[in-house]
Amino acid sequence: QVQLVESGGGLVQAGGSLRLSCAASGRTFSSFVMAWYRQAPGKEREFVAAISGGGTGTPYADSVKGRFTIFRDNGKNTVSLQMNSLKPEDTAIYYCRATLGGDHYWGQGTQVTVSS
Question: HEC profile for 53-110?
Answer without folding.
Answer: CCCCCCCECCCCCCCEEEEEECCCCEEEEEECCCCHHHCEEEEEEEEECCEEEECCCE
